[in-house]
Amino acid sequence: MGLFVLDAGRSKCYELSSVATPNGFYGHSTQPHICLPIYEKGPLYHNGVYHLFYQYNPHGALWDIGNLSWGHSVSHDLVNWVALPTAIDPTSPFDGHGCWSGSATILPGGVPAILYTGINASKVQVQNVAFPKNASDPLLLEWDKPGFNPVIPLPADVPADKFRDPSTAWLAKDGVWCVAVSSEVDGVGGTLVYKSKDFLHWERNAAPLHAARAAGMVECPDLFPVSSSERGGDGLDTSASGAGVRHVLKLSVMNTLEDYYMVGTYDDATDAFVPAEHDRGDGYRNWRRFDYGHVYASKSFFDAGKKRRVLWTWANESDSVKDDVARGWSGIQAFPRKVWLDKDGKHLLQWPVEEIETLRRNRVSLRPETSLKTGSLEEIAGVSALQADVDAAFEILSLEKAETFDPNWELDAQKLCDEKGASVHGGVGPFGLIVMASNDMLEHTAIFFRVFKHHDKYKVLMCTDLRRSSTRAGVYKPPYGGFVDMDIEEHKSITLRTLLDHSVIESFGDGGRTCITARVYPEHVATSSSHTYVFNNGSTTVKVSKLEAWDFATAAMNAA
User: Fold this and answer.
1) Disulfide-capable partner of 231 in 227, 416, 547, 560 (CB 3.0 to 4.6 Å)?
2) Is residue 54 part of a domain?
3) pLDDT digits over 274-295, tens only?
4) Cβ distance 170 to 223 under 8 Å?
5) Closest CA to 501 of 431, 555, 558, 439
6) Between β-strands 111-119 and 125-132, what pairing exists: parallel, antiparallel or unpaired?
């Protein structure tokens, strides 16, 4: 296994690009040997079938031969996937140099449509449309690219290589379709809005959906509605609006290779997005993040069958190009997540979709109310250390010894995780999990919390530390970190759910308030056993109030 359906990445350093093939699922990886990846996919729920379209090079694991197509896989449960023939190939003048990023939209009457970026014969980025040849085909096997493409040509004020990634379209109150496209105008990175009455003829809106000079070029925009707490946690169709509806704008920022989002309001009259937290600014770097680890170019869709918003995230390979070639594929999708708005109306909660639990086997648990004193290390025996679902709750008995928080740490949780790793003794924490550990502990990955006192309140730091994850050379092994926006003084406890799948470690802190995805490459797994532990390296005793763990069965991974 590795992680659900393979995506494809591509890079501005074309000869180093990383592009997935559909013969794997999860896999081994780390941070970029590719540079400036720009990819996107089109998830879709149609007539009871989940579709994932993804950038794909049918000629090999790298982007060194040929141009990109759109791969296509389908599923009935978001867990087991079947690979289908490519949906869109670079065979026309308007996409002959590659079928790049895009999105899928359901039109009235239930007809799907794809908007995607094509690299035309002049190597200019343009936006094209494609429709299924038979919309009643549950597999949507064949797609037609009308000869009148492109439907959105390159604007005169946008560089030829900075106009891409059309979003899922939404229907405005006036019945006009709107779509967001990433661009750069006069050196300012932003998201343009195009409008159409028929999905074929598009006109640019006078003002952008959002723009920020400080951010530079952004990619893969995703604008979607969420229910306020008064309306409950159900997902909403992308065109939903009105009372009790807020909107989320997500942007992928090229110069950080990270995804940022903000909850706010969408002004239907001006087609502008207004962030709710003005103090976070317009430069994105202070916006919130879906994931504080190794993901990029995330994409959501509305699952009409279960009335939920589902998020896919892409995690690229980062060991070496040589490893990509040996595997025969590169790039994975993380576990799909349900996404909904928190009660505070400011940030999103995320949780693995419930179907993931169908893979659980062989439940084990830690003895009730296990106390972890300073230096404690308790093994979670009887469960696979390489494919598992571990769900734990930690009770903090006292906050008296919490370390003082330095305000300079506020904007760089990753640096703080670097300075105060799992081996650095603390007051309240570090405590959490150690996973994929070798017998001699020379290789292991720590996922942990640490509590600091900040004036009269407390701040909770969550880290996934990869620095000892592998003894291999040439593997990217950073610490990742983010703060958990919670009142630890009131609750005195925090939860941690971690999904292990070979090279993939996905962790959800405090019910999905903070998420961190990591890729690891331990060498010991090839020849010896691996272990999972709970630990505490703080002065304050922590109680494990709950710990359940399951083996993961192997899903069908892009089977023929």
Assistant:
1) 227
2) yes
3) 999 988 887 788 899 999 999 9
4) yes
5) 555
6) antiparallel
